[in-house]
């Protein structure tokens, strides 16, 4: 029976692209089904200017309580259809393009290139690629998650139809630049940090030890990446919740948007929603890595037996 170390070394060989896609899709859907309510809470905090008045949220628990009491439990899953629709290709793109960029950069820069720098480069490139895919789905999701839009949209298709009809089809790519910043920062930080943690932790000697090692690496990577990209995420959320083309829009570009929030609301406002976001993406990053590696190994074992 192969040791966990040997299994891990074998797993370093990338799967064919279509199987990377499958593994990434399973990992992404698993993560979102587990952690989605925290994403709703995060968005509510990011859209809240100041303390939000009498209806504002003072903590994660307060936000959960008010949403359930005033809007119903189902609101915690409002807007889940767009991310579910994009989650499979999104996460598949994240992991598959990260593997492909790794091969490309190694061929370009040589096998002796610094592993840490390589991980950051490939992660950032994968994040930029992923961003182009997710923007329309993110925009529809945020519009649905905003309690101010509760009576405006009756669901995903209705929101999509009304956005295109009233704002134009290009409105679906409102916030693209901010999304590029957000995904480049998160993926670069995530994969780069995973490389450091894996090099630091002792080698696993059992399959369960390997799962635990991967979960710890993914969770630390997800937490670090969230620290890097939250200011960009706050700006992206606010940009995408604005109707396109309105001359009164306050947020248009990412770095000026960061400066505006800092000037008007202070540094802490750039990390609004950080706690629910990190509670989701810290463990969520661990779930992603464990499920992706587990599904990849199952594919190698049962489908691509001689791979």
Can you offer a commentary on this structure?
The chain has about 300 residues and is an all-alpha fold. It has one domain (about 5-300): Alpha/alpha barrel (Mitochondrial carrier fold), CATH 1.50.40. Helix content is about 75%, strand content about 0%. It is built from ten helices and no strands. The chain has helices at about 5-10, 15-45, 60-70, 80-110, 115-145, 155-165, 175-200, 205-240, 255-265, 275-300. Helix 5 (about 115-145) packs across helix 7 (about 175-200), helix 8 (about 205-240) crosses helix 9 (about 255-265) and helix 8 (about 205-240) crosses helix 10 (about 275-300). Mean pLDDT is about 85; it is low at about 1-5. InterPro entries: MCP, MCP_dom_sf, MCP_transmembrane, Mito_2-oxodicarb_carrier. It is a multi-pass membrane protein. Belongs to the mitochondrial carrier (TC 2.A.29) family. Keywords: Membrane, Mitochondrion, Mitochondrion inner membrane, Repeat, Transmembrane, Transmembrane helix, Transport. It is found in: Mitochondrion inner membrane.
Radius of gyration: 20 Å
- Taken together, the total number of domains comes to 1
- pLDDT averaged over residues: 84
Low-confidence stretches: 1-5
Shape: globular
Structural class: mainly alpha
For the record, give the distance between the C-alpha atoms at the N and C termini, rounded to a whole number: 17 Å
Q: Percentage of helical residues?
A: over 70%
Q: Given this structure, which CATH class is correct?
A: Mainly Alpha
Q: Which homologous superfamily in CATH is the superfamily?
A: Mitochondrial carrier domain
> SSE string, helix = H, strand = E?
HHHHHHHHHH
- Could you give the count of β-strands? 0
């Amino acid at each position: 029976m192969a040791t966990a170390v040997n299994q891990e070394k074998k797993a370093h060989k990338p799967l064919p692209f279509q199987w990377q896609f499958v593994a990434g899709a399973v990992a992404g859907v698993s993560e979102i089904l587990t952690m989605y309510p925290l994403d709703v809470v995060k968005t509510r905090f990011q859209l809240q200017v100041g303390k939000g008045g009498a209806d504002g949220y003072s903590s994660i628990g307060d936000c959960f309580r008010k949403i359930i009491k005033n809007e119903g439990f189902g609101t915690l899953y409002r807007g889940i259809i767009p991310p579910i629709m994009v989650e499979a290709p999104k996460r598949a793109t994240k992991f598959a393009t990260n593997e492909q960029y790794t091969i490309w950069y190694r061929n370009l820069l040589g096998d002796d290139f610094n592993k840490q720098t390589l991980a950051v480069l490939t992660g950032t490139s994968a994040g930029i690629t992923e961003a182009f895919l997710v923007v329309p789905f993110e925009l529809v999701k945020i519009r649905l998650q905003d309690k101010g839009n509760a009576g405006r949209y009756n669901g995903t298709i209705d929101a999509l139809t009304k956005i295109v009809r009233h704002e134009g089809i290009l409105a679906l790519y409102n916030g693209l630049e901010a999304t590029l910043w957000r995904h480049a920062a998160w993926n670069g930080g995530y994969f780069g940090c995973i490389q450091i943690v894996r090099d630091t932790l002792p080698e696993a000697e059992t399959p369960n030890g390997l799962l635990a090692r991967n979960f710890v690496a993914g969770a630390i990577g997800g937490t670090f990446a969230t620290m890097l990209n939250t200011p960009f995420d706050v700006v992206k959320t606010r940009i995408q919740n604005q109707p396109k083309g309105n001359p009164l829009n306050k947020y248009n570009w990412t770095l000026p948007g960061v400066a505006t929030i800092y000037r008007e609301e202070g540094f802490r406002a750039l990390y609004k929603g950080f706690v629910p976001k990190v509670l989701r993406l810290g463990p969520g990053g661990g779930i992603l890595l464990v499920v992706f590696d587990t599904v990849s190994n199952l594919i190698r074992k049962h489908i691509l037996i001689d791979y």
